[in-house]
Amino acid sequence: xGEGHARKRAAPMRSLVNWALLGLVIDRPSYAYExxxxxxxxxxxxxxxxxxxxxxxxxxxLEERGFVEEIEGTRMGRQPRPHYxxxxxxxxxxxxxxxxxxxxxRQRQRLFVLELGAFARIPEIALDIIDQVERSCLAxxxxxxxxxxxxxxxxxxLMARLxxxxxxxAIGAKLAWAQYxxxxxxxxxxRE
Amino acid sequence: MSLLVIDRVTKTxxxxxxxxxxxxxxxLEIDPGxxxxxxxxxxxxxSTLMRIAAGVEEPDRGVVRYEGHxxxxxxxxxxxxxxxxxxxGSDECPTVLDQVMVGLLARGIPQPVARxxxxxxxxxxGALGLARASAASLHEVERVCVxxxxxxxxxxxxxxxxxxxxxxxxLKRDSVLGLLRSIADDGTAVLASAGDATELSGADRTLALSxxxxxxxxxxxxxxxxxxRRTA
Lengths: 192, 232
Description:
heterodimer, A: 7 helices, elongated, B: alpha/beta, disordered C terminus
């Protein structure tokens, strides 16, 4: 293993596709083509592959980083389909990546709120932005499909349900915040 | 023509000697087969809006029209409009089937016919298995489904329901929302209120009520409707 490889492993993995693919391998070891199909089903509307070959490139990266490994004996036969499974390091890195995202989401939200504060002297603009936040949340909430609650559905369905619920809860929190923000800016306007 | 038109409705509530504006110049139109959900925090006026839309309560100002007729001039509650109430009263109706049949019997519908209609409505709501259960023993999700079935027996064109999933176990909530969506898909308009934004899922239009004002109306033509389940 050369120096270059070591440097590559040390650098943080930024590709969202790579992380998303690692999640699929953790969920269920599989081969590239099946992963590509599952990728589309699982992450539709959230993140997209440029092509099926994108999965091969991502798998190579994940393997180089030691996050996935090829399962022995799956490369044989007339149509070899090497299967990949997640390594312990892969699961750990994936978990850490998720935890980090929690902080990043909160940071983005805080920044938005702080920037909105710039309109404290022009509350009409802030109120207009808040209206747009509310409209956007309402539209998104209505569009959110009700997840399939059929018992026995697999991990893909479970993930879809968890994503849907997280999304709905986040929208609900933002809607409630919009009400509070509107009342606060209105109070500011009245005082002035 | 819209099925229901709430036109610049204002309602003031008096509680403990205080006056508060529950609805302020609220305007809303509902078309046949539409599923509209109004979200609001506590005391936002969402329950008042539901009662006024159903004709259970009258506005102080403004007018509510059902099929073009002023609700104050024409009683349509229980016929064209079904107002879903989750409370079951009366010891005379001990079983679920009794509860669902009672309204039909009160209208003079013969018992065998009432029974058939009640069973069909219960089946439509996935609650036929509860027909012989004690109404007092129902879980919240079952209570809601039975309450909806009771309203459906009258074949309403508009179903109004206040906080359908309030108190329903988390993992059962979406089955209630799915039922309401499917009722709208069958052509009965549904107007529901929501205290929790998770109840907005699956709606054709979603609105927010705050300070008595209705906001965030999305125009159906622009709102992408996502099917509840993938079609085969």
